[in-house]
# Entry
Amino acid sequence: MRITAKAIVHGAASGEVLYSSTPLSFWGGVGQDTGEIIDHHHPLFGENIKDRVLVLPSTRGSCTGSLVMIELLVNKLAPAALVFRDAEEIATTGVLVAQTLLSLSIPVYRVSAEQFNTLRSQKYISTWSSHGPDLQGSQTPPPPQPEDSPPPQLPDPDITNHISLTPTDKAILTGANGTAASLAMQILLQYANLQNAHQLTPVSRAHIDACIYTGPASNLVAQTFLKQGARVAVPTTLNSISIDQQRWRELGVDEDLAREANRLASSYIAMGATNSFTCAPYLLGDSVPQTGESIGWAESNAVVFANSVLGARTQKYPDLIDVCIALTGRAPLAGAQTAQGRVPASCIEVDVRPERVVAMEDAFWPLLGYAVGKVVGGGIPLITGLEGMKSKVTMADLKGFGAAFATTASAPMFHIAGVTPEAAQFYPAGLPRIRLTETNLRAALDGLTTASDKTVGLISLGNPHFSLEEFARLSELCDGKRKVSSVQMMITTNREVYGHACTAGYTKILEAFGAEIVTDTCWCMISESAIKADVVNLMTNSAKYAHYAPGIVHRGVHFGSLKDCVTAAEMGRVEDLMVT
# Structure
């Protein structure tokens, strides 16, 4: 059966179909050392993508998925080909960068919604060149690949095609700013072509997420740039890294991992980035962008917060595109960088009793963000029904909402009527409407609760990094109390906020309670070795971490409010959660 498709990256491949109608995050969703799908919440959990034709509507979640794709290619664990229904950038960027820098690639295709549904019934897909741009579906294995099949390649080798370059762009491309900047511009233009962008735009600052150590390939790419003389062109912050540089031995981190993670971080610092090491750059006093400011940020929660809460302009850049933006100071003028790219595609009507919102405390916002993200996918939502919350909602609430939303959605932002700055520009009239009720929140909670019993051995806080506001609230809850010895409590934050928390006296109270405070890294990067072997279940107030934890540290999860977490730390078990 011939299936009409658009080639994003041409090439010859064939394999058994692995199909899902649910988007997948490669980071936290696919094991780069095994090829196995490790996202416990995904329908394909336990399947292996190696040498199969992976058919998905799109990807979702973390920007680091592009680095995971490169690791899979280097480890020979990648799919035979990727087929997407919607515009997809994260995994595709991994293929583009691997092809440009490492000469590794696989075919990538896009199909219509109708053809996507057709692929559900196909057992095998081949992409031989004789098919032209189309795919061939079958119920039996296809014949062997022709010996003269060309290697994967971009359908349009002219990376400047359809893009209007300024004299500055042309100078960077031709090497005026060095070989590394030229390479970065080549990759950036491939990405711009992928987005159908017609020009680039300047950015004032960048935030690099590619400093997360995913494996040897992450260092290989960074070293490739560094050896070519890479230097950042704009002020650049670094995301959380894979270790606490000051306490990695105490946390049981393998020495080889610590060495490689440090090497990766040092590479980007050598390029001129600062050692901010935070997944919440919006908490850094001198790095908070202004309304309307054009920036180049990666890290999904940071992108969503910057766009939605601060009103800055950035796309949700895949890892390594963030590096290319930092090295050139340029970004494609597309998506959320434009006014049109910030327009809502749907109206989410929240119908939850006010007394339930009050009872759930801070757990309400992450649960709602998780539920909203699940129903909107790649479309930006306008959320109504919370207009009376503006005076009550905190930055910590919006941080938790945004991180959860970015976990289940691929959209770069949200609007909450009466709360976020740009929401007043838009009206629900004419938008498709989706009603979310307490039933949806209950379903989100049930999905995030993977614990096998009521016991709790670890309280995981700070995903995204804990803010000073959260330290104040937690110290108030913990003052004069003490956790039971069987429970660990670990809080991740950045060095700047940690310093302010020390000055304010919050850390003294929390340490008296028995909490440990970790900087530089975050829960999505903390490995299983940091958790005591006898811990069966952990508890968190982060819907983002509740989603990823089972696949990362192989523990059951309880989700609850910050108050619930403190109570569980005192008792060693969960009882009468606020969110139930």
Notes: The chain has four domains: 2-138, 167-338, 343-447, 450-571. The chain is about 35% helix and 15% strand.
